[in-house]
């Protein structure tokens, strides 16, 4: 029984140390690894999926995870804007991503393609040196 407690305690300590290193996702030099970025995406997807269980209004575009962001429900005939996700390290976090909800309550598709249209172009625009200096 005593050895069981020792092994259990060591396992708990090891687990806690691994988790604490995962939560400190950004290194001191402000660079993250591919694995850390994937972990943050998986965590964001899980959070989104919990949020998606909320029932949407009839006739509205359904909220959904698109692989990058968690889109809220859309009002028919309107453009939906959301801030660029904070968990994507290389994104411009001052920009927005956009989607259109058509008048039928469906997300607009890319013409000639059966994929939902989304505009992340503001998220991929990097900040200028002037902006970075002002932020610092």
From TrEMBL:
Keywords in alphabetical order: Receptor, Signal
CC per GO annotation: plasma membrane
Nucleus found in the keyword field: no
Signal peptide stretch: 1-28
Record-linked Pfam families: HRM
UniProt-recorded Gene Ontology molecular function terms: G protein-coupled peptide receptor activity; parathyroid hormone receptor activity; peptide hormone binding
Family annotation (SUPFAM superfamilies): Hormone receptor domain
Keyword match Signal: yes
GO BP term, example: intracellular calcium ion homeostasis
Domain G-protein coupled receptors family 2 profile: 47-127
Name under which the protein is recorded: Parathyroid hormone 1 receptor
Top-level taxonomy: Eukaryota, Metazoa, Chordata, Craniata, Vertebrata
Gene name of this polypeptide: PTH1R
